[in-house]
Amino acid sequence: MYFDRIYRPAEKEQKFAQALSYAKANMTGQWRVTDKPTRHVPTDEITNSIVIGALHQLSLWDEFYESHLAKIRSSELLLRRLFVGPLRYFYDVLDDCGIERQGIVDFNCAVGIQRVDSDRTVLSRLENYLGCRIADE
Amino acid sequence: MPLDSMDSASKTFDERLYALFEQLRNAAGRSQPPRKKVAIISTPRCGSKFFCESLASTGRSGYPAEWMNPSYVNAYARVLKPTNLKLSEYVNFIIGRTTSPDAGLLAQLPC
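^ inputs. structure came back:
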């Protein structure tokens, strides 16, 4: 399959928070805030090993992309990796694809934030286990 | 075509995908390929969904989603019931129904 452009959005800096989010989505089946969960998962069930396992999966993904994008880079495909703010990135992609826009594009998106207060509890427990801080408030 | 069934609050993830592919099945296909094909790749849960939904909301960049996610392909197979599941046919189906003439932001890999 041929792509004219391949974009890789800037990755989250807080990998443990991303890993927790990934673990929760896998456990609950709730990939969006609007999805009906297939099961309720108490905080106690989200163990350190589950979060660390999810982090392992994310790191495998990152390594896969790194190794395969290196091959793409040498081909005719153009790799764009834009480390800028989300809004600017959004405009950059529109401009790069030649999609005309006049001034600020008023986009709206129904995707909501799924982070909840109990996430901090899980991450604190993991911090205690690791003996170091892993997330900033 | 707005794919607004993606946001139904009373559906599970799988049910939402089935509804999406029902909607795509009933949509008219486009024969002309998009001017540009774009892939957006990321690790799960990094905010790429927000980014892709924002692009889709412009109405000019197609409907980028995790089309290569096995759950999506399974939903396609369940709803469309092809005799043999062929990747090329699946990709053509997606390109024909989710891209815009300007740019087909085809694949988000993964969410």
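The beta strands of chain A are 5-7, 78-80. The radius of gyration of chain A is 18 Å.
thumbs up if we can close this ticket
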